[in-house]
Amino acid sequence: MSTTTKPVNQKAWFLILPVLICVAFSAIVPLMTVVNYSVQDIISPERRVFVGTEWFVQVMRDEELHAALLRQLVFSLSVLAVELPLGILLALSMPAEGLKASLVLVIVSLSLLIPWNVVGTIWQIFGRSDIGLLGAALQGMGIDYSYTGNATHAWLTVLVMDVWHWTPLVALLGYAGLRSIPDAYYQAARIDGASKFAVFRYIQLPKMRGVLMIGVLLRFMDSFMIYTEPFVLTGGGPGNSTTFLSQFLTQKAVGQFDLGPAAAFSLIYFLIILLLCFILYNWMQRVGTQEKEGGQ
To answer: How confident is the model at residue 163 (pLDDT cuts 50, 70, 90)?
Structure first.
């Protein structure tokens, strides 16, 4: 008996064609421009010299870049180490249903609605010892706090600011994962007499793994590209203590107007983010697969 396959309707591609055109115009064309700048020495608008990989070699040997990269990695890993467990704890403590749940969701989401430059301004005022609650409180406790004069204070302030701003995102993702767990799992756990930690370890955490992986990737990428908040708060100082990779790139492109090295570094920056996210994603996938096999 012969079977005939129904032809696939390909007309749906026309619906996403405008999106593909917009992406090509807003992403691919600028990327090709950056690639063009990275292999040329822009002497003047009319005069350009092809230099090949010279700018890439120069950027890779830059000690300031090495310091900024190390600073960025430490910051991004610190952000994940604080925001992930804090977000999970916040998600577990949020009410599951009712008016109280809606109210808590709105309150938790408030910081996510604040623009990045406003976040930097809020913490700039908050940390001042004369008019800011944080600065005045620490000064009253005998702590000589100054985010503009002390490198450690500046770095910790940027870290706490980012935790305050973005922990709700992890909490909301974790909350969504918790709400997707059927009640049958909790009923079986109560019948078996499982403790709260056992419920979290064997039911809640595995069910949240997917959304938490999305949260880790989003927060890592975003923290690795952080620019506006530390720029508004500290301007990258004191010294270079809060000069992360994005500010280092901006200083080269705008401050020094070194378009060739800046373009080369932007491509390296992009590849670093892509590589680290690829490694992180595959590592998390492997851990999840091993845990599933172990549970079976």
So the answer is: very high
User: How deeply is 15 buried, as exposed, middle or buried, from its count of CB atoms within 10 A (0-12, 13-18, 19+)?
Assistant: exposed
State the burial class of residue 226 (Cβ atoms within 10 Å of its Cβ: 0-12, 13-18, 19+). Answer: buried
- Evaluate whether 170 touches 215 at the Cβ level (below 8 Å): yes
pLDDT tens track for 182-204: 888 888 888 888 888 888 888 88
pTM of the predicted model as reported, rounded to 2 decimal places: 0.82
Question: What tokens appear for 102 in the block?
Answer: 């809606």
What is the SS3 assignment for the chain? CCCCCCCCCCCCHHHHHHHHHHHHHHHHHHHHHHHHHHCEEEEECCEEEECCCHHHHHHHCCHHHHHHHHHHHHHHHHHHHHHHHHHHHHHHHCCCCCHHHHHHHHHHHHHHHCCHHHHHHHHHHHCCCCCCHHHHHHHHCCCCCCCCCCHHHHHHHHHHHHHHHHHHHHHHHHHHHHHCCCHHHHHHHHHHCCCHHHHHHHHHHHHHHHHHHHHHHHHHHHHHCCCHHHHHHCCCCCCCCCCCHHHHHHHHHHHCCCHHHHHHHHHHHHHHHHHHHHHHHHHHHHHHHHHHHHHC
Q: Which two tokens stand for residue 143?
A: 């702590």
The pLDDT of residue 159: 93
**Residue 164 one-letter amino acid:** W
pLDDT attached to residue 25: 79
Predicted pLDDT at 249: 85
Residues 6+ apart with CB under 8 A from 192: none
All domains of the chain in start order, with CATH:
18-52 (no CATH), 62-295 (1.10.3720.10)
